[in-house]
Amino acid sequence: MNLQNLSWFKFGHDAYLVSEFKAQACALAKAAYFDLLCYAMKQSPALSLPNNDRVLANWANTILETWLD
Question: DSSP assignment of 24-66, as one string?
Answer without folding.
Answer: HS-HHHHHHHHHHHHHHHTSSSTT---S-HHHHHHHTTS-HHH
